[in-house]
Amino acid sequence: MLKTVKVRVPGTTANCGPGFDSVGIACTIYNSLELSVSEASGLTIEVSGEGAGAIPHSEKNIVWQAARAVFTKVGFVYGGIRIRMDNAIPLARGLGSSAAAIVGGLVAANSISGNQLTRQQLFELATEMEGHPDNVAPALFGGITLSTVAAGSEGASQAHHLRFLPPAPLSMIVAVPDFTLSTRASRQVLPQTVSLQDAVFNVGRTAILIGALCKGEFQHLQYALEDKLHQPYRQKLVPGMPEVFQAALANGALGAAISGAGPCLIAFAVSRETAIGDAMVAAFGRHQIKAGYHVLSIDPDGAKIIN
Q1: Annotation: CATH topology of 171-296
Q2: Helix intervals (H) in the chain
Q3: Which residue range or ranges hold the GHMP kinase C-terminal domain (predicted)?
């Protein structure tokens, strides 16, 4: 007997300037995942699209690791496993490809084993696997998410999130350079401590950012997206970053930031998306970096079963 489920998971942009490890947005770029369980034995993994030549086809595959975590937790007995991945989210670019893989595996396995875990329990598992909740929260719940990990009632860490949608449409223009950057490498350049002045700077910017997004007052984004905790240190890893930001703003963007850990750079706008994208790509080109771009909007749903 063959049981199959198909899941669609959005890409995500995290940090959003000052909201380091806390703010995330689900984007309208997707990975699709088909998980099948049969009475046979063995593991078969097929990958098409982004990362087809790089993603493991073995038990090291993160989708399978996530699915297996659910099966183990609920005591689901499985035989043969077939996973088919069709990826549009660029790998190691700051658009949440690992979070999408984790969330896709969890949601698919939960569905095929009878939906025994709640979304909150899936969120806890995803946060544990990813190491932080800022990407997995929007991938799972959709919209704009604010997330944190805090001590629970018995002292164990517990992931929390708050989700909302802005009251007006907002576009995200993502410039995608042709090189990758691992989250680990991007974190290694960050300082262990920051000044009180820089911490206060980010607290103020994050407060204005969330207020502007909640109320749809996007004119505040140009300064609300400023950051002193991670972007100044990661700038050396993304050639031409200040010029790409300036090009976006000069062509109508409301503000710009590094997407996640980079190297994608993201601009926010309500019009002139093509002009902004072309200008960002041209600015990368002046630094001998080939790039393309996507014009995205906010995905409201998060991971969902599509069959």
Answers
A1: Alpha-Beta Plaits (3.30.70)
A2: 62-74, 97-112, 119-130, 136-141, 183-188, 196-215, 221-224, 231-234, 241-250, 273-285
A3: 212-274
